[in-house]
Sequence to fold (437 residues):
Amino acid sequence: MYNLQPLKTYMLDRVQDDARCLARVERMLGALGRRVEDVTVITEENLPELIGELVHLWPPAEVPEGVPVSFTRPLVFTVQELSGEWPDIGPILERCPEGTAAGHVRQVLGHIEPTRRYHERQNDWAENRVCWPTTDFGTMNGCPHGCQYCGEGKSGKFIAIGVNLEDFMEQAVGPTVEAQSWQKCFRMIGWGADHIAFEPEYGCIDLYTTKLAEYEGRYGYFHSASANVDWIADLPHRDRLIGVWSVTCEAVARDLEQGAGSALDRVEAARKCQEMGLSVRFKFKPTIPVRGWREEYAAIIERMCTLTRPESIGFCVIMWMDLDTLGAKIDLDLLDPEYVQAARDAAEEMKGNVCAPFPHHVRKEIYSFLIEHVRRWNDEVFLYISTESREMWDELAEALGQDPRAYRCGCSSVVLPGGKLALSPECPGTTYLEPPS
Fold:
């Protein structure tokens, strides 16, 4: 796992009740050069006091030279609540410092959603975005990468890690896979997290692929900005694993994703995984139009296409927020000034648009450039745009070479290794299709 340097480590007292959980914590701490005796134990009695300490601990005033500030986030080892019912935390909140976020208390107590449904047809149709309906898994909140455009990356106070993984596989993964008979590929993604940064000591992906191997034709994704992949070679069931990388250009990696691997490191990690037999896919998500973005993205695309043979490459210009919100996260002076001005000019028309802040014509210009440059190097790879509008798909489908109703993307619920689509009446295609009335 990463050489994290958390300011402090905490453990919910319930962790000590399960030898497997405690062993997992000891293993992870050992990788960081720490002992379980150094961990502060959280109980129901001292939680109000410690939650106040926890949320004021980070960010630190000083960071050791060469250490990304996001590597210093406190770690909280907890027991994830898998029953589907979260107890009332009102009495605990009443004892906490004024202004304590209920979400922080819930994360410490292990109230971390085991599954989430994303991109249901009614929602995507109402918001005018195209993706695949899916159910995802998560065992933690938070990430060490510190990406500045990400809420958890920029401002998350701590990383809460569920350590009762054996129970998770039996109570969350197994029943979900059986209930979602049409879904063939499942992401282990969240929330605001990057699981492989904590491997192999965490052991989640090993248990996950082992569980999936009990079911014919079921696969699992990791979705990562990490280059920590050498341990994958030792997984007994790595044939059930699909690797998806969030990639970017070197300028964005350097200036806005300081805790993640460089752009080339991620491509090199994908190359290694491809040699291990994994299906490898890439997403330029988010694509951020920094100054000189054309040269920057052209350079990493060339390296990507010469070092690997990915099954798919996707694009998504940074979105989900207005320009003021983006400007509060990153320095807008880093971005192409022409595009920043275009976003300012279009601010009124983009209100309420999930593709904000950049207007349609800007995003299309960026996508067209990226498509053209991939095709210079690879004329077979599946290309797509991720969580984009139906109108953008209508205009770019021919250039992408895919049908928006059933395209091969990076982490679809029904795109099998090799790019084969496993469509069914329960999932006849993407959310480009209008939901049934």
